TrEMBL record, chain A:
Domain of life: Eukaryota
UniProt domain Peptidase S24/S26A/S26B/S26C: residue ranges: 36-100
Keyword Hydrolase listed: yes
Major site of localization recorded for this protein: membrane
Name under which the protein is recorded: signal peptidase I
Secreted in keyword set: no
Organism (species): Arabis alpina (Alpine rock-cress)
Catalytic activity: Cleavage of hydrophobic, N-terminal signal or leader sequences from secreted and periplasmic proteins
Enzyme Commission designation: 3.4.21.89
UniProtKB/TrEMBL annotation, chain B:
Record-stated family: Belongs to the SPCS3 family.
Species of origin: Arabis alpina (Alpine rock-cress)
Lineage start: Eukaryota, Viridiplantae, Streptophyta, Embryophyta, Tracheophyta
GO terms of biological process kind: protein targeting to ER; signal peptide processing
Protein's membrane topology: Single-pass type II membrane protein
The entry's keywords: Endoplasmic reticulum, Membrane, Signal-anchor, Transmembrane, Transmembrane helix
Protein name (record): Signal peptidase complex subunit 3
Cellular compartments annotated: Endoplasmic reticulum membrane
Main location: endoplasmic reticulum
Biological function: Essential component of the signal peptidase complex (SPC) which catalyzes the cleavage of N-terminal signal sequences from nascent proteins as they are translocated into the lumen of the endoplasmic reticulum. Essential for the SPC catalytic activity, possibly by stabilizing and positioning the active center of the complex close to the lumenal surface.
GO CC term (a single one): signal peptidase complex
Length: 196, 167
């Protein structure tokens, strides 16, 4: 009960300048995270430098909840590469391995067929109706690195949005109250100091 | 400054940083492994070789694949994905790569193997250029780590040729 009492007290004693400072600090934190993300996008050449594996179609190599680091260069697409692609009309990217490549002379256009390691069939069933090959513009990046388990945070937050709100609420509360407690401790210290 | 919240926060940040650092080092250590894989592929039989109703050539082969990929495994390796692709060129396409067979090798003990199979995936051309075609059989491998950077490489074996006539 003491913690709650303190929290309520500190919220009551908020001053305008403090609120503004805290808002600016929070804004700075959010913007620097955004800057880092955009810089990563530039360096890796893809729109999403990190993706979370959502299905088990690449097991046992990539399990649901792992994250993949992507990179995209202009180099030609070759068999064996693990690519992330978007099918026209669907917004969830798919991470599978290239098993067939047919590259045209002169233009460099390429027809690609992919398949998940764990799947029995190739991906033709996943492509748009009537589509039997992927082209370069469908492919968003190649997987170059991998990290296990970390993606579960994103999966839980997407599938149970309530957790996202709880987390943001708790963070907000922490930011507001913690700075205040420092301020109140300083004020209290002044009182005691001057009393002696 | 000494509340439970601050302490937990500092501890968590430190733990995550250390974990990330260890994973980066584990991945980096993979650069130092000495890799000497070897492989041989024989075509035992051309099972059939036809032109499909759409006009594309298709061939079915029986392959004999011998490989020793044990040196690719490091302590940071989760599995090695190996596949055999037929590579050839045609007048329309500068490069065609068709995967004929693949396997997931989960442990070092399974990495030295001998297998005789017919092609797992259909060998279909874009067109009808396969008669008398010279092609390479390439064994590719993709080392998937427990954490970090993935490595891929291949052995190219050339000198294979398809028959001049359908059968």
């Amino acid at each position: 009960m003491g913690f709650i009492g303190e929290t309520v007290d500190s919220i009551k004693s908020i001053k305008i300048r403090q609120v503004l400072t805290q808002t600016v600090t929070l804004g700075m934190i959010v913007t620097s995270a955004l800057i880092i993300w955009k810089a990563l996008m530039c360096v890796t050449g893809t729109e999403s430098p990190v993706v979370v594996v959502l299905s088990g179609s690449m097991e046992p190599g990539f399990k649901r909840g792992d994250i993949l680091f992507l990179h995209m260069t202009q180099e030609p697409i070759r068999a064996g590469e693990i690519v992330v692609y978007n099918v026209d009309g669907r917004d969830i990217p798919i991470v599978h391995r290239v098993i067939k490549v047919h590259e045209r002379r002169n233009t460099g256009d390429v027809d690609v067929l992919t398949k998940g390691d764990y799947n029995k069939d190739d991906d033709i069933g996943l492509y748009a109706d009537g589509q039997i090959w992927l082209n370069r513009h469908h492919i968003m990046g190649r997987a170059v690195g991998f990290f296990p388990y970390v993606g579960w945070v994103t999966i839980t937050m997407t599938e149970k949005p309530i957790i996202k709100y709880i987390l943001i609420g708790a963070l907000g509360l922490l930011v507001i109250t913690s700075k205040d407690r420092q301020h109140t401790e300083k004020k209290a210290g002044r009182w005691w100091g001057s009393g002696s | 400054m000494h509340s439970f919240g601050y302490r937990a926060n500092a501890l968590l940040t430190f733990a995550v940083t250390i974990l990330a650092f260890i994973c980066a080092i584990a991945s980096f250590s993979d650069n130092f492994s000495n890799q000497t894989p070897s492989a041989q592929i024989q075509i035992l039989n051309i099972n059939w070789f036809q032109k499909q109703p759409h006009g594309n050539d298709e061939v079915s082969l029986t392959l004999n694949i011998t490989a020793d990929l044990q040196s690719l495994f490091t302590w940071n390796t989760k599995q090695v994905f190996a596949f055999v692709a037929a590579e050839y060129e045609t007048s329309k396409n500068a490069l065609n790569q068709v995967s004929l067979w693949d396997a997931i090798i989960p442990e070092k003990e399974h990495a030295k193997f001998w297998i005789q199979i017919s092609n797992k995936y259909r060998f279909i051309d874009q067109g009808h250029n396969l008669r008398g075609k010279n092609f390479n059989l390439t064994l590719h491998w993709h080392v998937m780590p427990k954490t970090g950077k993935m490595f891929a490489d291949k052995i190219v074996m050339s000198g294979y040729r398809l028959p001049n006539a359908y059968r």
